Amino acid sequence: QIEFPTITDEIQDRSKGGRSIKRPYHRLTTWFIIQCIAKKAKRRHTTQIELLTVALASLNVIMYFLWWNKPLNIRCSVPVHIR
């Protein structure tokens, strides 16, 4: 079994990518996806580049969600011990 370390306040304090930095990118990606959905609802044609961009933007939304609290520029190691 793996004994996972606890994340301390020291690591959380080192986060350089705050919500004010991440939020505009999340809004732009969401806005683009909403525009493409509205375009499809009005039965307008979408180009292949728009479809590809929507697919990649959808993956971006997932990554934003998963990495929202990820600290950046951490310079200390955290040992992970195996029992």
Features:
two-stranded antiparallel sheet; single chain; 83 residues
General description of the model:
With 83 residues, the chain is mainly alpha-helical. The chain has three helices and two strands. It has helices spanning 9-13, 19-41, 48-66, and strands spanning 2-3, 81-82. α2 (19-41) runs antiparallel to α3. It is elongated and about 60 Å long. It starts with a strand and ends with a strand. The mean pLDDT is 78.
Amino- and carboxy-terminal Cα gap: 5 Å
Radius of gyration: 19 Å
Biggest sheet, spatial arrangement of strands:
1-2
Write down the overall mean pLDDT. Answer: 78
Beta strand count: 2
Report strand %: under 5%
Count of helices? Answer: 3
Compact overview of the structure:
The protein has 3 helices and 2 strands. It has 83 residues and is mainly alpha-helical.
Summarize the SSE layout with pairings:
Layout: E1 2-3, H1 9-13, H2 19-41, H3 48-66, E2 81-82
Antiparallel strand pairs: 1-2
Helix pairs in contact: 2-3
